[in-house]
Amino acid sequence: MSIRPLLLPEPPGEVDRAPEIFAGGVAAVRRAVVIGNGCAGAENQCLGLVRALGLADRLTLYRIIRPTGGINKWLHFLPISLHKMVDQVLRHILSNTTFTTLFQGKLSAPYPVSNVQSLGLSSVLEADSKRIVTMVRDTFEKEGLAIVVACGRDTIPYASSVRCLAPDNVFAIQIQHPRYRLDRFDLVVTPRHDYYALTAKGQQEVPWLFRRWITPREPPGPNVVLTSGALHQADSAALRIAATNWHDELAPLPKPLVVVNIGGPTRNCNYGVDLAKQLVSSLHNVSETCGSVRISFSRRTPQNVSDLILREFSTHPKFYIWGGEEPNPHLGHLAWADAFIITADSISMLSEACSTGKPVYVVGTEHCRWKFSDFHNTLQKRGAVRPFTGSEDMSDSWSYPPLNDAIDVAARVREVLAQRGWTVG
């Protein structure tokens, strides 16, 4: 009896091959999708993590913009989707009526999306969950897996929707605690002080009715990464470039060069012109030990505060006040400063300064409460900051281990990706 030969199937052709990203059995994450809310502080946190992951040159930025003008400034408490719905209804009802300007302001494009040249990109796209998912899926074969990084309250539903619709194509990271349903994200990155109200001291200080609104209600789970402060883009590579770019302007200045960054009052760190007067007095006291002083304001700085500072120091020979013109010297200041004086309200500015390992003095901590106070206490225990009293010798130098939150978080992201069989390539 003859044996019939066994016919094996033909090897699969090009169409059936696994995508190149799975070569070697490991899936490679080769790009980043950032979902921003138009706030520089929030978007810088996303971009800082993307830089730490080595994906800064392979990112797409989508931005969520709330409607503006007229009554819209009073509707920011609404969820973003409901706010847009209300805005569209009002536009339809009030179109071509005498009440349009009162309720809506000028009826320009409802959701303008500006460019972000200051962030190193030429333009951004309007955020849309389905559009992001379609883009990620359609380019999966060529571009590979994507990390989605979002920050801010308005970005939460977008990032969670993208992860829900394309779980096999994306790794979703939400920066700043979303307050609920942490399981909708692969990782949540948030400062330790967000959990302050769960501590024994926090339980005593924070009113019971406020706890659910200002803090998570459960301890951090396995997909939560805790940081000391805010993530940012001021890493060593960025500061080296800034040092070169600003060399001609900042290097010749008399030493020590002291940089003063002034923010603005917040809900948990509220102050007024009294703090500005205190700062003015202290700066006059230390000016003898300063070689040169450069002052800059943030977008949140009240007009009466900036006006007071300008009146006092605009003609002082040692002082220079940045007026908001381009280019922004912020990175140059971080690179060349010998010491910093920063108002206590800005977690982001303090985090950036503390990443340099240089002396950082804080003014106004007595006006802060709850988790802001916890943040300042953490920095003081690390030896990263000292209170600014006006009696300092600004030529004194001291150091501490720099904050490296973005690097630490990036390492954790790579670790979790490796557990899934993914890598950043």
TrEMBL record:
Domain of life: Eukaryota
SUPFAM superfamilies found in the cross-reference section: UDP-Glycosyltransferase/glycogen phosphorylase (SSF53756)
InterPro entries with a match to the protein in the record: Elm1-like (IPR009367)
One Pfam short name: Mito_fiss_Elm1
Protein name per UniProt: Mitochondrial fission protein ELM1
The species this protein was found in: Triticum aestivum (Wheat)
